[in-house]
Amino acid sequence: MWLKPEEILLKNAFKLWVTEKDNEYFVLQRRRGYGEGGGGLTGDAACVKVSGRMCSIMLIVAGLLVGTLDTVLDSTSKVAPYRILHHTPDSQVYWSIACGVTKEEIVQHWDWLQQNIMRTLSVFDSSEDITSFVQGKIRGLIAEEGKTSLVLEDDPEKFREALLRFEKWFELPPEEKLVTYYSCSYWKGKVPCQGWLYLSTNFLCFYSYLLGAEVKLVISWDEIWRLEKTSNVILTESIHVLAHGEDHYFSMLLHLNETFVIMEQLADYSIKRLFDKEAFQRQPALSDPLQITKRGLEAHAKSEQFRAFFRLPREENLLEVHESFLWVPFSHFNTLGKICLSENYLCFASQDGSQCHVIIPMREIVNVEKPDSGSRALTVCVRGKRALRFSEVRDYQRLANTIRSRCGISASPQHSASSEAIRGECQSLINHFEDNPEDVTLMVGQKDCSKAVSTEALMTVFHPQDVENLDPKMLKEKMKEQSWNIHFSEYGRGTSMFFTRKTRDLIVRGVPEALRGELWMLFSGAVNDMATHPGYYTELVEQSLGTSTLATDEIERDLHRSLPEHPAFQSDTGISALRRVLTAYAYRNPKIGYCQAMNILTSVLLLYAKEEEAFWLLVAVCERMLPDYFNRRIIGALVDQAVFEDLIRENLPQLVDHMTDLSFFSSVSLSWFLTLFISVLPIESAVNVVDCFFYDGIKAILQLGLAVLDYNMEALISCHDDAEAVTILSKFFDSVTNRDSPLPPTVQQAPVGNNDKASHLKVDISELIREAYEKYGNIRSEEVERSRKRNKLYVIQTLEDTTKQNVIRVVSQEARLNPSHLDDLYNLFKRQHFLSCYWTMQSPALLHHDPSLAYLEQYQLAFQQFSTLFSLLEPWAFCTTKCTLSLWVFRLIDENQDGLVNFKEFCCALDTLYSGSFTHKLKFLFKLHLPPAFDLPEDGVIRKSPERGRGKVDLQAYLKQWQNEILKKEENIKDLPRINQTQFIQFSKTLYNIFHGDPEEECLYRAVAHVTSLLLRMEEVGRRLQEPSSPPESSKPASSAAADESSNEEASSTTPEGSDTPSSHNSQDAGPDLLHTEWSFSFEQVLASLLNEPAIVSFFERPVDIQTKLEQAKVAQLKLKANK
C-alpha cells in the first residue's frame, strides 16, 4: 500500500527494523519480530542462527515487545511488517512511501519503483528535485487508488491504514465495508486487553496482542441481543454487548458516546435489513451495504431525529442547521434556537426551554427578504399575511439563497411588480410587529381543504351540534372553542402555527369536538401529506375497488366489529367509509396490508375527520408515529411494551417489589398500545387520549399507562394472582368518564366490564391525563427513542429464538439428532442464509426469509447456499468439483420442488447420513440416482415455483399439506423403482467417490467391483430364465461387456476424470449389443449384494463425530465465503 510521504528519524529505528534490500534512493525493510520462517512474531528467533541461548531468548522477547507495540500504538509502523523508505545519498532524511502485509506485496511495490522511477531520477541534478518528484508521484498513486472507495472518509490516509489492519487480522470477505475504528479496552474476564475495535457493515471486531497473547473477537450484528451503555465500580463507563449468551464489555473509549451511537445504528441497520425488511425498504438511503460510511450513518441518524421531532414525511432529510434568534410576537422577545432545513420544509425549534417550535412548508413561503444589508437577519413571508424574522444568522446570505431556490423565488431586483408588492407587504408587517407587539391579530393562517373526497366527518353527520342548546356541557364546549380561537389569534392557525407549552396545556384540558379533526391533522403532520398528494386517495380507492386479497377478506370480517355500538357504524355510510379507507391503505402498503386494531383506530379517525383526512391520519400513525406496530409480528408494540416495563421499574418501584415478573403488564397493556386505549376506555374518554397522542406521540400513551398503574397501586399490590389484577384494571377503566363530553348517551360507549360500579369511584379522563403529565411529564421523547432502539434488539432476537425453539421441537420428532446439535445446525443454517445477504444490495436470498409463513418455512436455502453448507457438514469426502452430488441431494430433499430447502428437510437428510442404519444410508444414496434427483433439466437449471408468502394464501393447500404429513407412512423398500443401466453406473461412481481417501480405499474399491460383477451376472441369469427362447449367444456379449464396464469403472474411478465424467463413453466401449440390452436392478438386490461385503458395511456403520463436524463448520463457514 502506498503511503503519504512522511519524514521519519532512523537514529534508533534500526533496532526495530531490518534492511532487506536497498539502492541509491530506496530502502526495503522488515519489522523485527516478523520473519519468513516462523510465520509469526517470533520468526526472527527461528530464522536467525545465533550461538548462545540468551541471544535467542532476547530475540524472542524483542519480537513480543515489538508485536505488542504494533498493536497498542497508533503509528505507521504497526500497519504492516514491511515498508519502503526513500532517501538521497547526500541527505540523512528518510521518507516512508509504502508498506505491505506480505513480502509479495512489498516486493511488487519495490519492482514498480525499479521499473518506473529509478531511470527517471538520473536526470535530476539536485536532491530536492528528486525528493519532490518521488513525493508527487506517490501522492498521485494514492489519489488514483482512493478515487472511488475512500472519497467519503474524513481522513483517507489513516483509514487506509486501518483498513489494511482490518483485512489482515480478521480475514473477512473483501466486500466487507469497514465503517470506522476506535482504540479501546476489551474486558476478558477481569483483565482488560488494550486493542482496536473495528465496526464494519456486518461485524463488530476487536483485536489485541499483548506480550504473545492474541485476542480476536468477531460478532455479527444480527447475533446481538443487548447493546447498552453501563457503568459499575470497576468500569466507570463502558459499552455492554450481549451475544450468544456471553457478555462483552468495551471501555477506555475516547469518544464513548460517538462509538455507541455508531454501534447502535449499525445493529439497527442489520436488524432492519435481515429481520425486518418491511421497515428497511422504507430507507433507500442505506440500501447498499457497500456504500455505508460513518458520515452517512451520522447524517441518517440526524435526519431520523429531525423527522420524528417535527412529524415530517419520511422522504425529508436534514440538509442544513443554522443557529439563530426568532422574533416571537406573542412573547415580545427573540428566542434562541436552530433553523433546520430539509427539501420541502423550514423548521425552527427553541433551545431556551420555552418549548417553542414552528414548521413552515416551502409551498407556503412567498418571499425571503433581508431587512438591511448590515444585519445578519432575514425575513420569511408566508401566505396568510404572516412573517417570521430570524436574526443573528451566521450564514444568512446562503440560507436566504437556499430557501429562495427551493421555493422557486427569484432574488434578482428586476423581478415583477408583484414581487415588489410582496416585499413591501412583508416590510410593512415587520414594522407593524415592531411598533405594535400587542397587535397580533394578523397571524391567522390559511386552512387547506382538499376537495378530493366530499364526505363529512361522521360525527358531524350523526351528531350535529345544536347551536341553541345551552346546557352546561355545551357551554363548556363553547368556552373551549373560544380558548382555542384566542390561541389561534396569538400563535397562528394551520401549518405555520407556533407550538408552545400553552398548546400542550390546552390539549391536556381537552380539544373541542369541532376542532378535533383539524388539530389531529396538524399535530400528526398528515396535513402536509395530504397537501402534497392531491387526488392520491381518490386514485387509491378507484384502483383498490373490487380487489380480493387476504387483507380485504380480513377487513370484511372486521368491519362490523368496529365500534358496533356507535350509530355511525350501524349504517352503510360509516361501514362503507371504513371499508374504503382500510382497503385503500392495504393497497398502498401491501407489506402491512391489514392488521387487527387498525379497524378500531380508523373508526375513531372517521368520526372526527373527513374520509381522505382519516386515510392520511392512518398513514401518519402506521408509518411514522407507531412504526412497525401494524405488521404481522407487531414488533413495534412489543418494543414499546419493553420500554413501558423499563419505565415501570424506574418510576414505580413499589409495584416492581411486589410483582417481580413484569410480563403480566406486557400482556395486559398490549391493547393499550395497539388501540391507543380506545378498546378499554369509553369512546368519549378515549378521544382525549388520542388528542394527547397526536401531539406528544407514544410518550403520551406511556405516561397514561404509568398513571393508571399508579392510581391502582394499592389494589394491585394487594392482589394475589394475575386474574385479580386484570379484574381491578378492568373495573377501573369502566369507571373512567368524561364529564365535559357533549355527546348524547346514544353516542357514548357503554362500559364493557362489570356493570357494578358502586365500589369504584368515577375518574374523570381530563384529571387522569393531567395527573399523568404532572407526575411523568419529565419523560423525554429522546429517552423513549433510545429505549426503543435498545429494546428492539432484544425483542426481535426473542422472536427469532421462539421461532428456533418451535422449529427444533418439530424437527426433533423426526430426527435422531439431540437438541444441542439441532441448535447448532439451526444457527449454521440461518447464518448461511445471512451470508448470502451481507454484501449484496438486493440479494434474492432476502426473499427466502418471510416471517409471515409457518415456522419451518421462514428460513430457506436455495441451491448455492445449500451446496456451500452441505459441503461443510457432509460425513464423507464427496467429490464436489461440479456440485453434482450436492445438486442431487438438493433435488431429492426439496419435496415440493420449489427450488428451496427448509430446515426440516435439511436436518432429515443429515440425520440419515449421520445416524441412519446401513439400510437407510444406502436407500438415500440409491434414491439420489432416481428421478427427480438424478434426471436434471437439459440446461441444468433448477425450476422454481412462484414465490410463496405473496398475495392471497391458499389455506386449503396448507391444510392438505398438513394432512399429508400426518398420514405419511414409512417408505417401503419394495416401493422403490428399479435403477436402470445409466443410473447404476453413476451409482457405482458415487460409491467410488465416497470411498476416495479412506484408509481402506483399495479394499472398498475391490468390494464395489465384486458387487457390481455379481449384480450383472445375476441380471444375466434372470434374463435367461425369463427369455428361454432367446439364443444364449445374445446375452454373452452383454454379460462380458457389463463385466468389462465394471472393471473399467474401478480403474477410472481412481482418476480425477473418472469421478465426474458420465458413463456414455464406457457404454460405447462395451460393444454395440450393450446399447440395445437394457438391464436394471431393484434396491433389494443392491442391498443384499452389499451386505455380503463387510468392508462396505463397516464403512457406512462407522460413527460420525457430529460435534466435531459442527465445530469445524462454525469456523470454516465465514472463511469459506471469504476465500471465494
From TrEMBL:
- Gene for this chain: tbc1d8b
Asked whether the UniProt record includes Cell division among its keywords, one would answer no
Q: Which GO terms describe its biological process?
A: glomerular filtration
The entry's keywords: Calcium, Cytoplasm, GTPase activation, Metal-binding, Repeat
SMART domains recorded: GRAM (SM00568), TBC (SM00164)
Q: Where is the composition biased (Polar residues)?
A: 1054-1069
Q: What is this protein called?
A: TBC1 domain family member 8B
Show where the Rab-GAP TBC domain sits.
Answer: 510-697
Role: Involved in vesicular recycling, probably as a RAB11B GTPase-activating protein.
Q: Name one GO cellular component term.
A: cytosol
Q: What is its main location?
A: cytoplasm
Point to the regions of Low complexity compositional bias. 1032-1053
Gene3D superfamilies in the record: EF-hand, Pleckstrin-homology domain (PH domain)/Phosphotyrosine-binding domain (PTB), putative rabgap domain of human tbc1 domain family member 14 like domains, Ypt/Rab-GAP domain of gyp1p, domain 1, Ypt/Rab-GAP domain of gyp1p, domain 3
Cellular location(s): Cytoplasm, Cytosol
Give the matching SUPFAM superfamilies. Answer: EF-hand (SSF47473), Ypt/Rab-GAP domain of gyp1p (SSF47923)
Gene Ontology MF term list: calcium ion binding; GTPase activator activity
Q: What are the EF-hand domain coordinates in residue numbering?
A: 889-916
Self-association state and partner proteins as the record states: Interacts (via domain Rab-GAP TBC) with RAB11B (in GTP-bound form).
Region annotated Disordered sits at 1023-1073
